[in-house]
Design brief:
The chain is built from five helices and no strands. By secondary structure, the chain is mainly α. Helix 2 (36-60) packs antiparallel against helix 3 and helix 3 (67-79) packs across helix 4 (83-103). It is elongated and about 75 Å long.
Length: 144
């Protein structure tokens, strides 16, 4: 842990790759943070806007649209004001980075390509059997 010149711990933490992370806490302007009622109103506004964005993202999950991207956008809005959201986003970034590194491993890529090829062959065989048996008829129009 880093310490400042007064011996107290710094609010900025170093990541594993050596980059300094932003300090946790509110990123509201100073004049807002200085007034308790204004800061509380600010936090409520940030929460409501973030909630609206997250709800829109959840609605987009089964519908066409970038659902997860919008959800993470809402989390980023919350992270401007709430420590818990900042910690969730840091954890998510770390996990995505780890998954990316694992996916780039040649052994894992080769395994994924093999499994994808096998899956596509199985799907092609099933579609071929369906077309051979029923023709190009849609499943809901078959009268058997």
């Amino acid at each position: 842990m880093n310490t400042g010149s007064d011996g107290a711990p710094d609010a900025v933490a170093d990541t594993e790759d050596g980059k300094a992370e932003k300090p946790l806490g509110s990123r509201a302007p100073e004049f807002i943070q200085a007034r308790r009622a204004l800061h509380l109103s600010w936090q409520v506004g940030v929460f409501v806007v973030g909630l609206a964005v997250v709800v829109a993202g959840v609605i987009m999950l089964p519908l066409p649209g970038p659902g997860w991207l919008v959800i993470f956008g809402g989390m980023a809005i919350w992270a401007t004001e709430f420590v818990w959201a900042q910690l969730v986003l840091r954890w998510t970034k770390r996990k995505v980075t780890e998954a990316t590194q694992r996916a780039l491993d040649p052994k894992v890529r080769r395994r994924n390509i093999i499994l994808t090829t096998i899956g596509l062959v199985i799907i092609a065989v099933l579609v071929g059997v369906y077309v051979w048996k029923f023709g190009l008829e849609m499943p809901w129009n078959i009268k058997e």
